Amino acid sequence: MKFKAPVTKNETVTATIVDLTYEGLGVAKVADYPLFVANALPSEKVKLQVTKVGKNFGYARVLQRFNDSPDRVKLPDKVYMQAGIAPLGHLSYSAQLKFKQQQLRNVYQKNHLDIDVLPTIGMDDPRGYRNKAQIPVRQVKGQLETGFYRRHSHQLLPLEDFYIQDPAIDHAVVVVRDLLRQYNIPAYDENRNRGVIRHIMVRRGHFSHEMMIVLITRTKEIPQAQKLILNILSQLPEVVSIMQSVVPKATNVILGKTVKKLYGKSYIHDQILGHTFDISALSFYQVNPVQTEKLYQTAIDAAQLTGEETVIDAYSGIGTISLSLAPHAKYVYGMEVTEAAVADAKRNAKHNGIHNVKFEQGLAEDILPKWQAAGIKADALVVDPPRKGLASSFIDTVGKMQPKRIVYVSCNPATLARDLTRLQEFGYKASQTQPVDMFPLTQHVESVTGLEREK
Ligand code: SAH
């Protein structure tokens, strides 16, 4: 029998929201068929218009809301939801923290993992936290604009206050935008792959207040570059570095593989847990400096080091976790694929006078077997992989290396649960997971899980 959805496109229905998806969309059910709805919270009765009908689920938008959830808060501007900047911005912060704890519980339950999930560690003020921005530059209605894409589209919504970014970064974007307008430097045109300025990237040290501006361009040449640079420097005294990254092709990738220096240093400084770090344009660096210290402290505690251990920090970036662990360990080995980040990590160790660390560049799934073959025995292993989680060959090597403890720092509950299940097969048991809110007002869930090898 051919399945037929109980609703049709454009139909209006009235329903009560019963759940929230992991992306923060409300769930309404019509004869068991789920409709996903933005800006709708559990217990809210809403009049909906169906916008999309799929085989197993559909999408709808709210035409009218009959009651407010007790967890609903007012966002200062609905553009933040349209742009996906603050997809959970309509949910009270305490409810967001519970939502994130629940996401982990749900995924553990689905995977039959018996691991306790602690209450999420949140921020005192969950706004203006981001230390980095990558802002698209486009021509809108005859004028160069900076802003944010409407969700699931390439339509730029002009915006000056990004709400979750460091306000000094918002200000810098406006200054650069106005200078681009003043000197008639063309915005990138996506449809024809023409124009010059694709994105403005800004990074600012939370403690140092040093700022880096990266101009991401289609062309190598930037018209009026000298005037632009001089004016940026005079109007933004925090800027210590101006870089350029050229991305000639039509692509969704924001940053190129290389950067060129236009002014100053090729990195900025910042501090974490008392150590100073050089951060270059291409290196990964945690975007929420206040929460990063809490995240790392949680990871250090979970490693339960006495000062005698050999530790491996896989996916080490610029060495921030490695250097935070080093004072508590005998020796720390870091591995990381991005060359610029490894160079930053080595410099960072030296500048902080830390000598019991070593960094190697390469894929974690290649380096771990190499180290294992070379006889390196880790007592503890810290992993902080990207969203796709650990390669299964990496986990196989962990099974051979048999570190006593593993600390898993995760930004994706789904791959975390998958990897914890595999690690369990190798005798590793986790008792609890500590979520730390690194991305307030968004659906992203970061967590730390300590595992111990069973005898
Ligand atoms: N622990 C660091 C970085 C975490 S982000 C911090 O807290 O800042 C994940 C890092 O893994 C990035 O630096 C990315 O470049 C790196 N990476 C991604 N895939 C990798 C792989 N297969 N092998 C090694 N490093 C990888």
From TrEMBL:
One of the GO biological process terms: rRNA base methylation
List, alphabetically, the InterPro entries matched: MeTrfase_TrmA_AS, NA-bd_OB-fold, SAM-dependent_MTases_sf, TRAM_dom, U5_MeTrfase_fam
Oxidoreductase recorded as keyword: no
Which PROSITE patterns does the UniProt entry name for this protein?
SAM_MT_RNA_M5U, TRAM, TRMA_1
Keywords associated with the record: Methyltransferase, S-adenosyl-L-methionine, Transferase
User: Which SUPFAM superfamilies does the protein's record reference?
Assistant: Nucleic acid-binding proteins, S-adenosyl-L-methionine-dependent methyltransferases
Q: Name one GO molecular function term.
A: rRNA (uridine-C5-)-methyltransferase activity
Catalytic-site annotation from UniProt: 411
Similarity comment text for this entry: Belongs to the class I-like SAM-binding methyltransferase superfamily. RNA M5U methyltransferase family.
What is the protein name stated in its UniProt record?
Answer: tRNA (Uracil-5-)-methyltransferase
